[in-house]
Design brief:
9% of the residues are buried. α2 crosses α4 (56-62). The chain has 167 residues and is an all-alpha fold. It contains seven helices and no strands. The chain folds into two domains: 2-75, 434 Repressor (Amino-terminal Domain); 94-158. The termini are far apart.
């Protein structure tokens, strides 16, 4: 179980999650959402205190249900993976959903071009904050594409533009 792990392994994970792979100020936002003073939270990722089990759920919720938190503290080493319990609302306006998909794709291209430009945070290399922004945008694009695919598959064959009867 996770509580038998070395304190350094947990502190390295927390540092990577809240500081290393996150945009500037993210750890402070998470501490506020958790209801934990920022200096106290920093002691956990610095390895000065052991991370208490009572803060795993608040951390998961404060990081907007970041899968890495659940995988590290609960699912690591098991054959289980997370699955969202609440179904997302169905897409009713397909043309609008397709345009939204295109705008999300454009957002990713814009983030990538900005991240790899000379004036970016990491110069020609993608910085950790820019990589996190790209990851989140890609996650959003993927979720929307999956919802759109499900909506298209739920349509009757004739309305999908497939082969017509008698043709």
């Amino acid at each position: 179980m996770w509580w038998t792990r070395e304190k350094t392994e947990i502190s390295e994970f927390l540092y990577k999650l809240l500081i290393g792979d996150a945009p500037r100020g993210y750890a402070r936002q998470v501490a506020t959402r958790m209801g934990v003073p920022y200096p106290t939270l920093s002691k956990y990722w610095l390895g000065k205190r052991r991370f208490p089990a009572s803060l795993v759920k608040p951390l998961f919720l404060a990081t907007e249900e970041d899968v890495r938190v659940a995988e590290f503290f609960v699912l690591d080493g098991s054959g289980y993976r997370l699955e969202r319990a609440a179904a997302t609302p169905p897409i009713l306006d397909l043309p609008r959903a397709v345009m939204t998909l295109s705008s999300l794709q454009a957002k990713i291209m814009d983030l990538y071009l900005s991240a790899t430009g000379e004036e970016s945070d990491g110069g020609a290399k993608v910085s950790a904050g820019e990589a996190e922004a790209l990851r989140l945008a890609l996650q959003q694009l993927t979720a929307h594409a999956e919802r759109l695919r499900a909506a298209l598959l739920s349509q009757p064959p004739a309305s999908r533009g497939g082969a017509r009867a008698g043709a």
